[in-house]
Amino acid sequence: MELVEAIILAVLAASTPLLIAATGELVTERSGVLNLGVEGMMIVGAACGFAGAWLTGSIFVGALFGIAAGTLMSLAFALMTLGLAVNQVATGLALTILGVGLSGLIGAGFVGERITPALHLNIPGLTDIPLVGRVLFGEDGFVYFSLALVVGVWWFLYRTRTGLILRACGDNHVSAHALGYPVLRIRTIAVMFGGACAGLAGAYLPLAYTPFFIPGMTAGRGWIALALVVFSSWRPGRLVVGAYLFGAVTILQLHAQGWGVGIPSQFMSALPYLATVIVLVLLSRARTGGSTAPAALGTVFVPDR
């Protein structure tokens, strides 16, 4: 029972940054913008988040630093792709490369430092329930926030007029512009939201997952978050299933190495990313229904007068 509980807790922790980053990217792509710079925004958010928490002693301030860093990175992306109509794919890749280098510069002075990680919820009588107590009532605030974020995004996209307008911009920006909606402004706000989520997801790693910062600690999580958006068919509810699935693969491969499974450790370490590729290939071959990508995703829009 203790082993099962430990594995579940580890899966929840490993899945939280994926879920937060993927939720933000889903909103961005629903508006018609493809931002491949999630990995870069996450790693800068991790560096700035740790720096903020270490300097102030506050996890909350560290999270705000991570959000601000991701938002600023996304604004640079929006300026290039929406303001100057630069290719979105190339700009996103450049943003990732910039983020990796920038995070190393920001975090150079904090390597080897440690902080007190985010506190976990503790409700007397509930947290102590065997197996489910710590899972439901003993997590840190980031875990609960990630689930609330998915619910909030679902409600926004499918139950509000503003969400309908945002989806219209992603499906047909020409028609949305003809109806008088400010497509570029809407997309800029969506990109900023995605950047804020990516920054927060990156900040979660040193603030709650591991209480220290090391260069490259995102370890490809931004790319998995991008794949999760496709896995979910651009629907918020399916992101939860996908994030916890990939989180489980990540944690189980670590336990498999600890159990001495006769498989090379290098292959086990690559298993989460291999699973990502396999799932994307199967989805592309077997998709017969459900939501598809926004029709205008990745298409440059230059409004006329």
Task: Please explain how this structure is put together.
With 305 residues, the protein is mostly helical. It has one domain. The protein contains 12 helices and no strands. α3 runs antiparallel to α4 (88-107), α10 crosses α11 and α10 runs parallel beside α12. The radius of gyration is 19 Å and the shape is globular. The termini are far apart. The model has no long low-confidence stretch (mean pLDDT 89).
Task: Please report the number of helical segments.
Answer: 12
- Helix and strand composition category: mainly alpha
Low-confidence stretches: none
Strand content: under 5%
Q: Please, how many domains?
A: 1
Quick gist of this model?
By secondary structure, the chain is an all-alpha fold. It has helices at residues 2-30, 38-56, 59-83, 88-107, 133-137, 141-159, 161-171, 173-178, 183-209, 221-231, 236-258, 265-286. It has one domain.
Fold topology:
Blueprint: H1 2-30, H2 38-56, H3 59-83, H4 88-107, H5 133-137, H6 141-159, H7 161-171, H8 173-178, H9 183-209, H10 221-231, H11 236-258, H12 265-286
Helix pairs in contact: 1-6, 1-9, 1-10, 1-11, 2-3, 2-4, 2-9, 2-10, 3-4, 3-9, 6-7, 6-11, 10-11, 10-12, 11-12
